[in-house]
Amino acid sequence: MLQGSFKLLSGIHLLLTTPSLRSLLWKMLGLLTFLMLALFTGVFFLFDMMMQVWLPEGDAWYWMILSWVVWAVSILLAALTGIVGFAAVASAAVAPWLDTLAVRTEKIFGIDRPENTAPWWKQCSIALVHSVRPISILILWGSVALFLSLIPVLGPIAAAIIWTYASIHFLCFELMDTTATRQGWSYAYRKAQLKERRFFWLSFGGLGMLLMVIPFLNILVIPAAVVALSRPDKV
Prior knowledge:
The protein is an all-alpha fold. It has one domain. Helix content is 81%, strand content 0%. It starts with a helix and ends in a 5-residue tail after the last helix.
């Protein structure tokens, strides 16, 4: 169950302790930081909007409890929305660097797979295209969550659970994209891998989601995932 989490942690360790990998991280840092700040500014306004819509009014004894529930659910949903947006945009924006990162990681472990020589814009475009289907599925789940959120009290809680699971599922697609693209995996095969190794990917994406909530540490998640998944399971 925790194998995926340990895999991601190993990627973070290797990324930070290997000079050839760390040098690429420094190149990505400025762009990733800018995207993180921009998207999480939007999260603040989304949270404020949710609070205005959902915050109960009245003097009943349970008002304070409901207020805390609404506050917690609103900040969770807003944060997840920011994470999803950051993962999709950032992974596409730094796609060429991620491919080079994968190449260098593979070479460390004796894997000789050619680097993607397509133009920068094309690699970024392909990464965005690969996000379309996962985003479509996420939107469907998000529609269900939005409908449930209209139900008083329990609705927002159910919406938060659904949105959390759907966001982790989407994040798994984003985190595997560079490695899957390099190995020629189709969307159907990626989906099959998520289903076949469900608990691995839930823990991998779940830890990634948790780390993405932490400012600046979230910048490491996408590069670390590429390093982790480029590393053979048995070394």
